[in-house]
Amino acid sequence: MRTVKKPYPSFHAEHVGSFVLPPRLKQARLAWRQGLMTRDRLTEIENEEVLNVVERQKECGLHAITDGELRVRNGIGDFFSCLTGIEVDETVSSDGDMPHPLRVVGKLDFDDSHPFLTHYRFLHQAVGEGVENLAKQTLPSPNMLMYPAIRTNEVYPSLDAFCDDLAAVYRKIIQAFYRQGCRYIQLDDLFWARLCDSQMMVREHAAGFELSELLERCTRTLNQALAQRPQDMFISLHMCCRRFSPNWVHGRGREVMGHAMANLSVDSLFIEYDDRRPVGLEPLRQVSCQKVVLGVIDSHSAELDAPQSVKMAINTASLYVPLQQLAISPKCGFGHCEQQGITEEQQWAKLRHMVNIAHNVWTMPE
Questions:
Q1: What is the mean pLDDT of residues 69-81?
Q2: pLDDT band at 2 (very low <50, low <70, confident <90, very high)
Q3: Dihedral sign (CA 192, 196, 201, 205)
Q4: Keyword annotations for this protein (predicted)?
């Protein structure tokens, strides 16, 4: 683990990044797709809604502030398709595996025309320069390009060459956001959960890949991507589960998560945490980062989580990680839970409730 000049921000309540899309923005996107609204007017509405969610986060008592991913329309494809060498290809078959149909069509690269930089500049200005709050940029992890249909391509002669270029591109990405004033990036990574899934690993084994090899490959690629980051740039890894079982504390998941916790050069790990019993949580002992953020708040339900249940989860985790190195968050972004019927006001109520619980457990910034 690297030595940092500044400690990880002392926030004990965070959120994963995305929020429920406001109805006004849904209507504006529909109007734009139908040719009834200009792109400039849609951008104006996006800006207004981002300003609103920034203020709502502050009102909830959150200090790591995102734009709610309100500008994202096509998941990880929005980010990756704007890299040189990546295209969206709806003909790519993912067999229900790959989150977005992407393919490599040329050497990977990144330049400062990427629209996410413009989005971040707006967020940075909206959050302000005060010491109390920090703008957080969410991005897909480089490992999200490790799906078989992407990593196996005709552009690169070997997987080593592909991973080396991928890591180099992310070093450019981190520096580019840093120049815009960004000091906190959260990388969202579903691939680790895929490695916990037995059915997915049967496919990998049939293709000639063993779990140990993929673990080393993912760890090395991510660590190389982060190798030259500035010492006051904080990097979190959100280990998403989504379609895969979040119960990582048993079986193959313990091996995968234990390896990640011990070897990744990130400042914090966001972990979806469903099992609140101490059995099987030994991988937490291997944590080498400054903070573990426990995804204990149910973002799929409008019902407020029982404070005692959340505190029990925190106490269980504190058997393995010091309490001051822990924080809490929703299990995933609210933007992924709209099909469960979560409303905007319900998400804000859950976040206020989470912050109140954290206030009762830790001394938090006022």
A1: 93
A2: very low
A3: positive
A4: Methyltransferase, Transferase
Write phi, then psi, for 92 (nearest 5 degrees): -70, 125
Sign of CA dihedral 303, 305, 309, 314: positive
Question: Residue 240: what are its φ and ψ, rounded to 5°?
Answer: -70, 155
Identify the weakest region by mean pLDDT among 40-54, 155-169, 234-248, 282-296. Answer: 234-248
Neighbours of 233 (CB within 10 A): 18
The Cα 236–Cα 285 span in angstroms is 18
Nearest Cα to 329, choosing from 109, 66, 36?
66
Interval 277-320: pLDDT, tens: 544 567 788 888 889 999 999 998 999 999 999 999 999 999 99
Q: d(Cα 162, Cα 155) in Å, to the nearest integer?
A: 9
Among the ranges given (13-22, 268-277, 291-300), the one the predictor scored with the smallest mean pLDDT:
268-277
List, as one string, the DSSP characters of 261-299.
HHH---SEEEEE----SSTT-GGGGG--SSEEEEEEE-T
The dihedral through the CA atoms of 332, 335, 338, 343 has a sign that is positive
The domains of the chain are located at 23-361
- SS3 state at 305: coil
Buried b (16+ CB within 10 A) or exposed e, 175-192: ebbeebebbbbbbbbbbb
Query: Across the chain, what does the average pLDDT equal?
Result: 89
Please name the amino acid found at residue 241. C
Residue closest to 291 by CA, chosen among 341, 263, 328: 328
Structure tokens at 233: 């740039």
Encoding tokens for residue 26? 């849904």
Structural Rg of the chain based on CA atoms:
20
CA distance 262 to 259: 5
pTM of the predicted structure, to 2 decimals: 0.92
How far is 86 from 78, CA to CA, in rounded Å?
11
The topology (CATH level 3) of 23-361 is: TIM Barrel (3.20.20)
Q: Which of 49, 1, 46 is nearest to 264 (CA)?
A: 1
Query: What does the DSSP 8-state code read for residue 13?
Result: B
* pLDDT per residue as tens digits for the range 154-174: 999 999 999 999 999 999 999
